[in-house]
Amino acid sequence: MTANNHAQSTGCGRAQFRADVRLVHAPDRKRSGLQRGLRVVWLPDDVADFIWERGPDVLGSAFHAFLKEADMLAEDEHLSEASDRNAVFLSALCAGPRDLAGFQDTDFVIVGCGGLGSQIAVQLAALGAHNFFLVDGDRIDESNLNRLTWATRQDVGQLKTDRLASYLSSRFSATVLTLPEFATGSEAVRLIMAYARNPFLVLAGDNASLARQFLTAYHAFSAAFPPYLHVGYVGAHCIAGPLVARPDDACPFCNSAAEVANDSGFVAPSALANNALIAGFAVSQIAMERLTRRSILCGHRWLFDLRTGRAGLRSISKHPECKVCHP
Ligand SMILES: [Zn+2]
Question: Which residues of the chain have pLDDT under 50?
Answer without folding.
Answer: 7-13, 77-79
